[in-house]
Amino acid sequence: MSDPPLSHLDPRARTPETAPAPPRRARLNPLLKRRGRRARMWMAPGIGVKRWVALFVACTLLGAVGVLHFTWTGPLHFVATRWILWVNTLIAPEVMPLYTGGAVLMLLALFGALWSIMMLNGSVLRGTGTAPETAVDMLYERRNLARGPHVVTLGGGTGMSNLLSGLRLHTGNTTAVVTVSDDGGSSGRLREALDMIAPGDLTDCYAALSDSPVMARLLLHRFQRGEGLEGHTFGNLMLATLSEEQGGLSEAMKDIHEVLRIRGKVYPATTSPSTLVARLSDGRTIRGESRLAAQVGNATIQEVTLDPPDLPTLPEVMVALQNAEQIVLGPGSLYTSIIPALLVPGIASAIRQSTAPLVYVASLMTEPGETDGLSLEGHVQAITRHLGRTPDCVLVNNAMPPRDVVARYAAEGAHLLTLQGASRDLRGRSVLCPLLQAGQARHDPHALAQALLQLAPRRTVG
């Protein structure tokens, strides 16, 4: 037999059904506070509402003056006279001047006009599926995000999507240029079957910037069964469908941004399939990103190229780089995520010509089979060799991961990257910040985004 409810044992304990309702004043206070906050948000600087409210009030007052002039000087003069005399009978002259009646009526009319506009807007918003209570929050957020810096990020993998999930909270002017040379897993299978660019990293970036939580979750859903479907993500299949239906992803970019409600833009570094080619210190050449880590062995990577070398890029990417206020490389794998995006000729040329600060987000650790034994300075030098421009700033984490985490990575052949032994030039370019997620060896997206925005040039908002 189950225990009796606590309310049966203690008369002071009440279930939700029998508990007394909170006082009316207690219920109203939070509601009034929320409405007061929303009212203040409508009048916030830059939201684009105050100017129209001011115009509405000015036009209403001008209309009142016009009606007064028409009635007093026209054939309705007797109506105006009787109206004024009737209003005067409602006022005690010894208490207040007679003209206050007109002022009160004018204010009441203005309040009624504003109230009717608010109700009309509420009806329109409900008809479009937007709750009036959240409209001001959305407008306020988008106006503020629209004033954020124009940041262009280049790279791929988990590091890129992690960064974007932090930047989306601070600016709506982010453009992600994504490496698309992956030839393993779901991306590799779709590339081989459809002769398309690798969609995997694009999917991750779309999910990171999507304003729809449901769509972001669906994009990353990976099928665990089904012949031909197993191993593919929904996002990869969607991009493959759009590429097939429109003859390439370059024609589908606009549709993708609208359908997924992207806060910012995501573009592939190139619209043509390409293969990553690595030249090793022992003279060997490895073709294919997926084979790199497994076949490097005791050698080191000297250079990576793309085959074919003359790859096109989208005009939108070139415009974004020309208008960038900050260009960010990484975080991500040096030779398979960051540098491949810099090997597209148009992108490399635009970055070299750009006056925007170039920031490299340093990796937290070396990657087994890819950057074994390579120091932080070696990472920066590799970027300089392949790009033809040295990063203006290197953002370095200075927080120490837990010892057990460091030991686990060390057992796999990965070691922390620090400024130990770095040259004076690199130390002068470096900015140290705590960028780790608690208890992990992974960048915290919010700390990383805030650090980058502090490095971005200050904008003057007119």
Characteristic terms for this protein:
single chain, 462 residues, alpha/beta, Rossmann fold, 2 domains, 7-stranded parallel beta sheet, 3-stranded antiparallel beta sheet, 20 helices, 51% helix, disordered N terminus
Tell me what you see in this structure.
The protein has helices at 6-9, 24-42, 50-73, 77-89, 99-127, 132-146, 157-167, 185-194, 200-209, 213-219, 234-246, 253-260, 289-295, 315-323, 334-342, 345-353, 376-387, 403-411, 424-429, 445-455; strands at 151-155, 174-178, 265-268, 275-280, 285-287, 301-307, 326-329, 358-361, 393-397, 430-433. It is α/β, with parallel strands linked by helices. It folds into 2 domains: 36-144, no CATH class; 149-455, Rossmann fold. The strands form 2 sheets. Strands 3-2-1-7-8-9-10 form a 7-stranded parallel sheet, sandwiched between helices. A 3-stranded antiparallel sheet has the order 5-4-6, with helices on one face. The protein starts with 5 loop residues before the first helix and ends in a 7-residue tail after the last helix. The model is unreliable at 1-19 (pLDDT under 50).
Helix/strand order, N-terminal first: HHHHHHEHEHHHHHEEEHEHEHHEHEHHEH
Number of domains: 2
How many E strands?
10
Structural class: alpha/beta
Cα-atom radius of gyration: 31 Å
Q: In percent, how helical is the residue content?
A: 40-55%
The whole-number mean of residue pLDDT values reads 83
Specify the CATH class of the largest domain: Alpha Beta
Uncertain parts: 1-19
CATH architecture tag of the largest domain: 3-Layer(aba) Sandwich
Subcellular location: Cytoplasm
Function: Required for morphogenesis under gluconeogenic growth conditions.
InterPro entries: CofD, CofD-like_dom_sf, Gluconeogen_factor
Keywords: Cytoplasm, Membrane, Transmembrane, Transmembrane helix
